[in-house]
Amino acid sequence: MDLGIKGKWALVCGASKGLGLGCAQALVADGANVLINARGAEALEAAASSLRSIPGAGKVLAVACDITTPEGRAAVFGAAGGPGKDFDIVVTNAGGPPPGDFREWERDAWIKAIDANMLTPIELIKATVDGMAARGFGRIVNITSGAVKAPIDILGLSNGARSGLTGFVAGVARSSIAGAGVTINNLLPGAFDTDRLRATAKGQATKTGKPIEELLEARAKGIPARRFGTSAEFGAICAFLCSQHGGYITGQNILADGGMYPGTM
Fold it and tell me: What is the pTM of this model?
């Protein structure tokens, strides 16, 4: 299927590895120009090199910075050879805040979580959405978490910040921009085979004394699909939402979790 995004500019955050990289790969494979962002310069440049090797790849730019800061966003929008703020596609993505007991979180922990997982996506939407509307095409996808639909008690920082973003998107996606060819959706990952998942398993292994692979196997068996998702699968879903064919989907929370969520809605 031709996604109809050849030559369009996409910003993909947190794209040095994992789900963000999977999204960038899918967009590049269908002809989009991409600017990828992450904080680690070495890993980001390695990701950019891999993207440039995809057959038919267009322009691939890499800007290593902290997108949660005004300076980081200025670096992305001011990148030489980039589109400025005239991105056609924006994929927001930030690592989740640490787990823990809410009784131990001070105000600074909450502010950091909200900055990364709510306010930064809103700033990126604010900076790009009017240009998209003026050009008659725009796709914004926020990578959030399956915990938005099924909260996990130890992930209170993530639950709170990402739920705030979900509420904001529900309103703005249905504003006047919807009639101007601009969609905003949230893509909610469940358990995907990423470095973050394995780091969590490593922590559990240390606490329990069980082998990491045993813990991962047990968790995978608890998923109706009986496996973890892949970054390529996640990227393909993202790319469809960003495509010409996704124009009638907006304000939605798309859950990709192998069937883990037990609800009907």
Answer: 0.95
